[in-house]
Here is the input.
Amino acid sequence: MIISPKLALTWLKEGNEAYMISEKNHLGDISKEKRLHTHRHGQNPYAVIVTCSDSRVIPESIFMAGIGDLFVIRLAGNVVADFGMGSIEYAVDHLNCKLIVVMGHTMCGAIHSAIADSHSNFISSIIKEIQSAIGEETDNTKAAKLNVFNTIEKIKSSEIIQENTKNGLKIVGAMYHTHSGFVEFYK
Ligand SMILES: [Zn+2]
Here is the structure.
């Protein structure tokens, strides 16, 4: 079943509204029935979510999603390198996902490190990538937004993504606000 990007975006926004006033994730279907259905018939996620590994940013809860709903790629600072790109291409090309959301967040430690230019060996490649995206910007949230759009440009550089864009694939930037739980979708 192909789910239009418009419908997928509506589901994400509705899920996020429910999340903001919820104590527990009671809307995402994680039932035995859903588990068995997706086991037998495969997955049909309605959106790819590219976001940060930050433990405060939990896509399935933020969008009240359950089994088989979201195809999630998470790396600190929501950067995408080859493995991430491959994962996105798989979701788009093999699972017919028509919506990609690149979601940064406020108070992001990776963005903070990029601004402060402080990093250890393992994260230096992430920090360099973010620094190239944010330039001289020192406001964390503004820098996070620039970083989201840099990741979108990276995703758009894929030929598979370009082909699928001709067939209705949409890529949307977003910001998760860690204080309110609100997901701001960029136009
Ligand atoms: Zn982060």
User: Anything to note?
Assistant: The beta strands are 47-51, 70-74, 99-105, 170-176, 183-185. The mean pLDDT is 95. The chain has one domain: 5-185.
